[in-house]
Design a protein that fits this description.
336 residues, elongated, 11 helices, binds 6-O-phosphono-beta-D-fructofuranose, Rossmann fold, single chain
C-alpha cells in the first residue's frame, strides 16, 4: 500500500512524534510506502509531496512543530483567490496521480470535518486528533494538550512569586477558543484562585468580592487563569478585559499576561510522545486492515477508533459537572 500523510490546522507539540509513529509502523511492520504532503490540504492542491524514508525519521520524537508544514486550507470552502478551481476534483486527480491508497490527516476539529468530506468524495481517509485545546470529540486526549498544560502550569507557577511580592492580582490568559480544558487543567495544576472557562458564565462582581474576601483573610495576592474564549464586552481580549474589570471592582493593582504561542511551540512531554506514537501506530493498523473513515482515539488507556461521521461538526466542551471543576469547587476555587 502507498499512503499519504498531511498535517493541518494549528501546530502543537507531538506532531512529529506521530509522523514518526505512523511512518515507522507503516514502513517497518506493514511494508507500506509513505508520502509526505506539504502544508496541509494545500499540498494536495499544489501537488507538493516528498517520499518519506526511514532515514528521514530520525530525531523526530522530541522535535516541536511539524516537518510537513501546516495550513488552515479547507478545499471544500469557497475560495475567492482561486474562483475557477474545483479543488475537490483537483485533489481527487492529484491523489490518483500520487498513487495513494489512503490519506492520513493529522489535525483538529476542522480537519476532522474536512476528512469526513474527503471520504464522501471517495478518498480513503484515516485521521489522528492533535490539538492543545483537547476539544476533539470522541477521544479523552489529543496529543499536544499535556505539553501545553505543562507549559502553562510553569508560567502560572512563576506568577505566584511576583504576585506575592507586589500584592497584586495576576491574570493569565491561556489558549482555548471554544473549550476551557487548558485553562481548567493548568489552572488547577498551577493553584489558580479563579479559573474562567468559555463554558461557564461568570459574574465580575462575584469575582471582585471573592478577591476582596481573600485579601481580608490575609491572602496577599490572587491568580486568575482565563481561557481565551470567555465572553467579554466589545470582544476585548480576555486577559485585558478581566484585568481591567478586576482593578475597577476591587481597587487592587492587577496585571495581565497572555501566554500565546509559547503554549504551542517546542518539545512534547513524554506523555504526549507516547500518546502520539501509540496513535500513529493505531492509524497504520486501521489502514492495513482497510478500516477507513475513522479517527484514532484514546479512552482510558485503550487505543480505538471512532467513525469520522460521528466526530465531524462536534466540539468536546468542559461540562460544569466535570470532576476537575467539582474538585476545584471543593478546594474553594472560584469559577466565576
Ligand atoms: O490550535 C488551536 C489554537 O491553539 C486555539 O486555542 C487558538 O485560538 C488558535 O489555535 C490560534 O491559532 P492561529 O492563530 O494559528 O490560527
Amino acid at each position: 500500500m502507498r499512503i499519504g500523510i498531511l498535517t493541518s490546522g494549528g501546530d502543537c507539540p507531538g506532531i512529529n512524534a506521530t509522523i514518526r509513529g505512523i511512518c515507522k509502523t507503516a514502513i517497518h511492520h506493514y511494508q507500506m510506502e509513505v508520502v509526505g504532503i506539504h502544508n496541509g490540504f494545500q499540498g494536495l492542491i499544489t501537488d507538493e509531496t516528498a517520499l518519506i524514508t526511514e532515514e528521514s525519521l530520525s530525531g523526530l520524537l522530541g522535535m516541536g512543530g511539524t516537518i510537513l508544514g501546516t495550513s488552515r486550507e479547507n478545499p471544500f470552502q469557497k475560495d475567492d483567490l482561486m474562483p475557477g478551481t474545483d479543488k475537490p476534483t483537483l485533489i481527487s486527480k492529484n491523489i490518483k496521480k500520487m498513487g495513494l491508497d489512503c490519506l492520513v490527516c493529522i489535525g483538529g476539529n476542522s480537519t476532522m470535518a474536512t476528512a469526513a468530506k474527503m471520504m464522501e468524495i471517495g478518498i480513503n481517509t484515516v485521521t489522528i486528533p492533535k490539538t492543545i485545546d483537547n476539544d476533539v470529540w470522541g477521544t479523552d486526549y489529543s496529543f499536544g494538550f499535556d505539553s501545553a498544560v505543562s507549559i502553562a502550569t510553569e508560567a502560572i507557577d512563576r506568577l505566584h512569586s511576583t504576585a506575592n511580592s507586589h500584592r497584586r492580582v495576576m491574570v493569565i490568559e491561556v489558549m482555548g477558543h471554544k473549550a476551557g480544558w487548558l485553562a481548567l487543567y493548568s489552572g488547577l495544576a498551577g493553584g489558580g484562585d479563579i479559573i474562567l472557562l468559555p463554558e461557564i458564565p461568570y459574574d465580575i462582581h462575584k469575582i471582585g468580592n471573592y478577591i476582596i474576601d481573600r485579601f481580608k483573610k490575609g491572602k496577599p495576592y490572587s491568580i486568575v487563569v482565563v481561557g481565551e474564549g470567555i465572553k467579554t464586552k466589545d470582544r476585548k481580549r480576555a486577559a485585558t478585559y478581566i484585568a481591567e474589570e478586576i482593578e475597577y471592582e476591587t481597587g487592587v493593582e492587577t496585571r495581565e499576561t497572555v501566554l500565546g504561542y509559547i503554549q504551542r511551540g517546542g518539545s512534547p512531554t513524554s506523555f504526549d510522545r507516547n500518546l502520539a506514537t501509540m496513535m500513529g501506530g493505531h492509524a497504520a493498523e486501521l489502514i492495513a486492515s482497510g478500516k477507513f473513515g475513522r479517527m484514532v482515539a484514546v479512552r482510558g488507556n485503550r487505543m480505538l477508533s471512532v467513525s469520522l461521521d460521528e466526530v465531524a461538526g462536534k466540539v468536546k466542551l468542559v461540562s460544569p459537572n466535570n470532576d476537575y471543576v467539582k474538585q476545584g469547587l471543593r478546594l474553594g476555587v472560584c469559577f466565576g
